[in-house]
Specification:
The complex is a heterodimer of chains A (about 800) and B (about 325). Chain A has 22 helices and 32 strands. In chain B, the strands form three sheets. Chain B has a five-stranded antiparallel β-sheet with strand order 4-5-8-6-7. A four-stranded antiparallel β-sheet of chain B has the order 9-10-11-12, sandwiched between helices. Chain B is α+β, with helices and mostly antiparallel strands and about 325 residues long. The chains are: A alpha+beta (about 800), B alpha+beta (about 325). At the A-B interface, helix 22 of A face helix 12 and helix 13 of B.
């Protein structure tokens, strides 16, 4: 394919486009040409550092690579942290939202007179008075208004009430009368693809989204035909909800005539700003978005969602501050979701166990608003296959909006691939660990031919196998049954592009006369430890102490738009920018330290800048560290605070790939079908841990989410009605602390090969640990009872059916 | 939540008097009632709080009976040395309810008198469900994973109480206070199925208060066990449970085998009870009894797995008692 050429103007436009930031984060490989053009542009325009300031990764560090308790935690653990839900402003109104009970319908008429007459009600928003002109849409496909007349999924917002208190607003909802025209709906992808299915979105495409070209290399058909060992299987995942502790919530204060301030629960404060500005046709300068803390995002809070839009519309209508906070069922129904998928895999293997032909066909649930829903990235990169074809097709259904959940489609792809690979290994007569090690691609992206800057997958698998005792414990399927208990172990490997996107991130690091270091960068703090990580990178690089630093984030009044906290990009993109800004600052400090000054015309330190270094808040002579001066004294000598500027510059010719593996040990009860996860070992190639404690916490959190996907999470839809039946924490089975292995048996292992792209050798980490647990657990269940589960989640009813079929119990 | 009056009863008689207002509701631990009120599923103008009534949370032994006050917290029932020794199935059932937080709030009386958890009943948008005085059951054509395989009629919601299953197996007596004084109902007759009245779960009238449960000290109560299977062991309601109590040994003289989570009330597996009576509990007898326990089950679209699950639990429970 010819490489797309972009003009400087086009590049600058992309850098300023929040939709592009999001698209790149979710599908970096689909935007490779744009990314390359931007990277090249940034390399060209970024001033280089003084040659004597080393940007290479030092062998020894003082702060980076240590275990540091996160500085942002105490305020949260004591309940003091302020979230959007906590914001209360003088004169603030509370909103309640009316949601459609139907999955597909048109409102014939709506009567709000009784609701409006209720004392305390200040505004009622419906399709009759919702803004529809200009940019008044929410940027989805198809566009939607703040509230809808035409409903495309059960739970969609159709009216909102703003009242003096939340109870009155809620009560007013019961007084709204709607005349519905209920239309046929579908939530099952296979049904949507039938020729007889109704045209759900008027696309006349058989409910398919526009096709994208398959990824091809070599000749799959020929290689498959001649392979001595063949295998085929179909694997499915279902709709999941992030269930963030803090649901969607925004408070908007609309000051006349058109100054807007939003306190939002978001992963991307600048996205709230650009989203609201776009919706109302305002210059971005008129909108300020603040996200001091966010109670979880995981990919569901990537821009101005309905909460922000509805709050803003109601605030504009009433000229009072308005709070919109989704309730728990509302969040389960109408936040974005991880999409369901169906993935059929086919492969040919040589008699000595080498993968030679590989094919994947993937249906993804693009759902009501046609989100991207491909799961093929892990197929493309983890295993070497010279002849391969991967195809993705999105399907339109009446499920709630689909989007990212700790990766866009990688957990779905890895669920299929890793069960499939286990089955292939068995067909080839090989141990699953040995089969994987034989077939990993460890050097390049086979489709772009780019070299990976590092690859730790072999170490991930070897270390995990050792930790779980693979050699001693792995046995033939069903060979370890004692009484009613069956024991098994299983593993899964994973590769993804996350953390690799190179959208430039810029930062400013300042130091004042008191030595206080202020880190200014555009990430929004969402609980992943971003603040501590940035403080560690900045102070390590400047040569200061951790206690001297203070981060700023999440307020568009102070930080610029440098993309959101998603795609495992924070440590890489922001971290690089912070490091480069800190290096710039360090260089300035050393220059100032060696400048003659004052009446005596003497420098603070004798020598050239290159003769000096910094550490623990001092600049010193490398040859004689006793000759030193405090950094704050250097700043004082110059008379005003000093500032370093930096941006994330990606080296040419390399690409980042992230790897992980998971090892599970289970016990299956043959009487009840219950699965007990006895141990889980997560190994993650994260390049280099900036904060070891923070990295372990990220891995545990990610693995926990994977355990949920494995053992119970599933948004279930009523058969005929197509509304979710378990939109609550009672029946949506997220694992509690007690559903995990005990502390000592739930272990992260860090694999640190170092990397040429991220700061101090770091790679992306937030998302990869989520993918391996489900297939690792499925493979362990197979090892225990000889039953293959291809449809996630692995629930006791499926296990019981398998036990019955195998005749393991009467 | 709509406005309501909170009153605090000082005695059982006072509670009954306060309940004379239409729609008044008893508040014990509040873990179910408050949710029902918040979700608009239960209208009330007044709640009558029982917490201040002295002595209603006692767990004691008296003249051959174990008496457990209805306000005894589930955590205390689970930890009671007396119950663990004399009526282990009840202590085990209380320990199996929800989470430590909920067991610290919830009471024994509240646990047996709670409303069903059917996800259609609990969905504010499904107002035409039978249990909400409508005329439709969504579970029949919809998602019936958690619904009844026995005794469904119009409504297929299951009795969610773990302790109710244990109390039925233990032949407990339920002491109920009302305007006319006290009445005593066997646990077996305390729960109401949809064939009698699909709007209620127990015989308790709106102006009555469950004050106590009594279990006769006996070989049967001592040799009892409760087992539960749930999606998440840490928190969930039972997908199926079983309470088993056996008198005699090695030859069974009397047996109570009661299934939970599979029917609108705790379900007596009478065929299995009769079959094991007079027999020694060897592997074959246990297997046959487990199969008989689920005979006659009529699953809906997506709950046939409960047959195998209940059978497995009976097998497990009998095996444990035989050991």
């Amino acid at each position: 394919m010819a490489k797309k050429k972009l003009s400087e103007k086009e590049i600058l436009a992309l850098l300023d486009d929040p939709q592009f930031h999001l698209a790149v984060a979710e599908y970096p490989t689909e935007h490779q040409d744009e990314i390359d053009a931007i990277d090249e542009y940034i390399r060209r325009v970024t001033p280089s550092l003084a040659p004597w300031v080393s940007a290479s990764n030092p062998a020894e560090t003082r702060i980076v690579g240590k275990r540091v308790k996160r500085v942002e935690d105490p305020v949260r653990l004591t309940g003091q942290a302020m979230y959007a839900t906590d914001v209360s402003l003088p004169g603030m109104l509370h909103a309640a939202i009316l949601r459609s009970p139907h999955a597909r319908a048109r409102i014939e008429d709506i009567d709000t007179s009784a609701a409006e007459a209720l004392p305390g009600v200040r505004a009622v928003l419906t399709y009759k008075n919702v803004p529809t002109e200009g940019g008044a849409k929410t940027g989805s496909n198809p566009d939607r208004y703040a509230v809808q007349r035409d409903v495309n999924f059960a739970g969609e917002e159709v009216a909102a009430v703003a009242a003096e208190d939340a109870h009155t607003a809620r009560e007013a909802l019961d007084l709204i009368k709607i005349k519905w025209n209920v239309l046929p709906s579908i939530t099952d992808m296979k049904e949507a693809l039938l020729a007889s299915a109704p045209d759900l979105a008027g696309t006349r495409t058989g409910n398919k989204t526009p096709a994208s070209a398959p990824t091809k290399r070599g000749d799959f058909a020929a290689a498959y035909a001649s392979a001595p060992i063949k295998h085929e299987g179909t694997y499915t995942t279902t709709t999941l909800q992030h269930a963030t502790l803090e649901p969607y919530a925004t408070v908007v204060r609309w000051d006349a005539p058109d100054h807007v301030t939003a306190w939002a629960s978001t992963q991307y404060a600048p996205g709230i700003r650009s989203g609201l500005a776009g919706y109302f046709g305002l210059p971005r300068a008129r909108v300020r978005a603040i996200a001091e803390n966010t109670g979880g995002g995981f990919g569901s809070k990537t821009g101005a969602n309905r909460d922000a839009i509805i709050a803003a519309v109601l605030s504009k209508m009433t000229l009072r501050p308005v709070k919109v906070a989704f309730d728990r069922p509302g969040n389960f129904k109408a936040a974005t979701h991880r999409f369901a998928d169906i993935l059929t895999l086919k492969a040919g293997v040589t008699s000595d166990g080498r993968l030679v032909a590989y094919e994947g066909f993937n249906y993804g649930d693009a759902a009501a608003y046609r989100g991207g829903a491909s799961a093929i990235v892990p197929l493309q990169r983890l295993y070497r296959a010279d002849n391969a074809t991967f195809t993705y097709q999105g399907v339109i259904t009446n499920r709630p909006p689909s989007g990212a959940q700790r990766c866009v489609g990688d957990p779905q792809g890895t669920w299929a691939q890793e069960i499939f690979i286990d089955e292939l290994a068995e067909k080839a007569g090989m141990d699953p660990v040995a089969f994987r090690l034989k077939n990993f691609e460890t050097k390049i992206d086979q489709d772009t031919k780019r070299t990976w800057a590092s690859c730790g997958i072999v170490e991930c698998v070897e270390q995990g196998a050792k930790a779980i005792g693979w050699q001693q414990k792995w046995h033939k399927p069903g060979a370890a049954i004692r009484g009613s208990k069956a024991h098994g172990i299983g593993m899964a490997a994973h590769a993804c592009a996350h953390g690799a996107m190179s959208l430039p991130m810029s930062s400013v690091v300042r130091i004042d006369q008191a030595g206080a270091i202020d880190i200014n960068q555009g990430l929004t703090e969402i609980g992943g430890g971003q603040s501590t990580t940035m403080m560690m990178i900045a102070t390590e690089t400047v040569g200061a102490s951790l206690k001297d630093a203070y981060p700023t984030w999440g307020d568009t009044g102070f930080v610029s738009d440098t993309g959101g906290t998603w795609g495992s990009r924070g440590t890489i993109s922001a971290g690089s920018a912070v490091r480069n800004a800190a290096l710039d600052l360090k260089a300035q400090l050393l220059v100032e330290a060696t400048k003659p000054r004052g009446s005596s015309n003497k420098p603070l330190l004798e020598g050239k800048p290159e003769d000096l270094d910094t550490a623990d808040g001092y600049a010193f002579l490398k040859a004689d560290p006793s000759k030193r001066v405090a950094l704050k004294d250097i700043v004082s000598a110059t008379g005003s605070p000093m500032m370093g500027r930096g941006t994330h510059v990606v080296p040419a010719g390399v690409a980042m790939s992230v790897f992980a593996a998971g090892f599970a040990e289970v016990e299956v009860d043959l009487d009840t079908g219950e699965i007990t996860l006895l141990r889980y070992i997560a190994t993650d190639d994260l390049g280099k841990a900036i904060n070891v404690l923070g990295a372990e916490q990220q891995i545990e959190g990610g693995a926990s989410m994977g355990i949920g996907m494995a053992l119970g999470e599933e948004l279930k839809f009523d058969g005929p009605g197509n509304f979710p039946v378990n939109a609550n924490w009672e029946n949506y089975a997220m694992p509690t602390a007690l559903d995990h292995p005990r502390w000592a048996d739930f272990r992260p292992i860090l694999v640190e090969p170092g990397d040429a792209i991220g700061p101090y050798g770091a790679k992306g980490l937030a998302e990869p640990p989520t993918a391996p647990p489900p297939p690792a657990i499925a493979n362990a269940v197979y090892n225990a009872i000889g039953v293959r589960i291809h449809d996630a989640p692995i629930t006791s009813d499926k296990i019981l059916a398998g036990i019955k079929e195998k005749g393991l119990r009467a | 939540m709509k406005r309501f009056e909170h009153t605090s009863a000082t005695s059982v008689q006072d509670a009954v008097r306060l309940l004379s207002v239409q729609n008044a509701r008893v508040l014990a631990g509040g873990t179910d009632l408050v949710m029902l009120m918040k979700e608009g599923l239960l209208a009330t103008e007044r709640v009558v709080d029982l917490k201040a009534i002295p002595g209603l949370d006692r767990i004691q032994q008296d003249r051959g009976e174990i008496q457990v006050g209805a306000m005894a917290r589930l955590a205390d029932v689970a930890a009671s040395g007396l119950l663990i020794e004399k009526a282990p199935a009840l202590a085990q059932a209380a320990a199996a309810v929800a989470t430590p937080q909920l067991r610290n709030m919830g009471t024994l009386g509240g646990n047996v008198a709670q409303k069903v958890r059917c996800w259609y009943y609990r969905d504010a948008d499904r107002a035409d469900c039978y249990k909400r005085n409508g005329s439709y059951c969504y579970a029949i054509f919809g998602q019936s994973d958690l619904h009844a395989i026995f005794d469904g009629a119009a409504c297929f919601a299951v009795s969610p109480s773990d302790t109710g299953v244990a109390l039925t197996a233990l032949d407990a007596k339920m002491v109920i206070a009302g305007p006319e004084g006290h009445r005593i109902v066997p646990a077996d007759g305390f729960f109401v199925g949809p064939d009698t009245d699909y709007l209620r779960e127990t015989v308790l009238a709106q102006n009555e208060v469950l004050t106590e449960v009594r279990i006769a000290e006996s070989d049967l109560a001592t040799k009892s066990v409760f087992l539960k299977a749930a999606q998440r062991k840490s928190i969930d309601f039972a997908r199926a449970s079983v309470g088993v109590a056996i008198a005699g040994g090695p030859v069974v003289q009397r047996a109570r085998i009661v299934l939970g989570g599979v029917a609108p009330t705790p379900h007596h597996a009478t065929l299995a009870e009769e079959y094991v009576t007079g027999k020694r509990l060897d592997a074959d007898v246990i297997a046959k009894a487990a199969a008989l326990a689920v005979e006659g089950a009529k699953p809906l679209r997506s709950n046939a797995y409960k047959i195998q699950l209940a059978q497995g639990l009976v097998r497990k429970a009998l095996t444990r008692l035989a050991a």
